[in-house]
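Q: What does the assembled structure look like for these inputs?
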Amino acid sequence: MANKKEINAGIIIIGNEVLSGRTKDINTSSIALWLNPLGIHVKEARVIADDENIIIDTVNIFRKKFNYVFTTGGIGPTHDDITAESIAKAFNVEYGFHKDAFSILEGYYKTGEFTEGRQKMAKMPTNASLILNPSSGAPGFYIENVFCLPGVPSILKSMLGGLNNILVGGDPVLSKTLNLRTVESEIAKSLSDVQNKNNDVEIGSYPFFRAGKLGVSIVLRSTNQKKIDLCNEQILEFVKTKKIEILREI
Amino acid sequence: MANKKEINAGIIIIGNEVLSGRTKDINTSSIALWLNPLGIHVKEARVIADDENIIIDTVNIFRKKFNYVFTTGGIGPTHDDITAESIAKAFNVEYGFHKDAFSILEGYYKTGEFTEGRQKMAKMPTNASLILNPSSGAPGFYIENVFCLPGVPSILKSMLGGLNNILVGGDPVLSKTLNLRTVESEIAKSLSDVQNKNNDVEIGSYPFFRAGKLGVSIVLRSTNQKKIDLCNEQILEFVKTKKIEILREI
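A:
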């Protein structure tokens, strides 16, 4: 069976709070883990400042470079939320109240509570499609291949499922992880030999310290389960020969 | 007192494991938090694949664009550790055994344990300066303004302090955080007014959910403490008028 064309994605994390170190980005991981079974590979992620020109430039580079682009952050009601307007400028389209977004928010808030501050969350490219928000009302949006999501991790996660039927993926990326009680230098040569014999499987080797003990996670990734299994057998062979303890196989 | 020139930095996270979502990047945060008091502002972070051409291109873009560049990941002993060789290619310098790195590693391991696999960790640009590793022996290195650190967060953190006297920073970035029991839309307009009156202070507004309750963190950042204090007073004024509860002031 021929492989489908590889479908890829880029992620743009918009937020000074990540660059200042105050906030650790977990949205890249959430988006990537959601995309893997859809057969969409994240190829690059950038963390950029809340700066209009930088947002416009990065979005315009990414939307040509990748099949899908996901932005996170900057779509709330405050002065530092400039993503929606920047996206409109990147696409050179009208920015203003989005009719459906306005209706959704109007319905979400009690009479009198849909204040000017909250109304700002209905402003976006007027021709955008909405991404519904089951957590807190305010929708995200997409234009062409650029999907704009909020920065709050729990809200972002709750919105991803609504996009499953809109994205068109390739073959899902499958993976297998072997956790070994060893150090990388002990297995480097054998692992390198296995990688050379299995070009279609991406073999990653990640040392870890857990509960004061050293170990290595070996991660096999491919769109082809049989190739992963073959690669795994070859690794288990040298693991056995070297009498390395297997901590976990998933 | 005139401000010193702003000194900036870019971070390159090298690792398929971050792009696959398996690993959440916390090194960006560690590096940024360490750089803030040194007066070095992180302007951009990129997560890129373990791919030689991508590493070379990104390093060459970043080393011209930023005063300092930090890379993390890919300097271990396995086949997927290609950072050191890629950096040598980016600078077009010789890649091979680094004399001092070799001595350090030779001294670190017991006789007979400094295997071929481990020796690879002494391979890097031969003219690089070393970054000592108090955790696990294998040093990082730097050439010109590019500093190459390991990906394992605890080891990376243990190595940063050794660079404090090598980096030349600007005015340290100071910050103040106000956690309020409110929602962003309630304060958006007032906060925007304060931002307009205080151009030298970067005001960030970050909604949070904690223990089932909504709140907003307002973060003021500037190199000038007096300007932060003035801005803070103006915020406390509208907080008082709106009868918003202050959860924490740090």
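Residues 59 and 189 of chain B are 41 Å apart (CA to CA).
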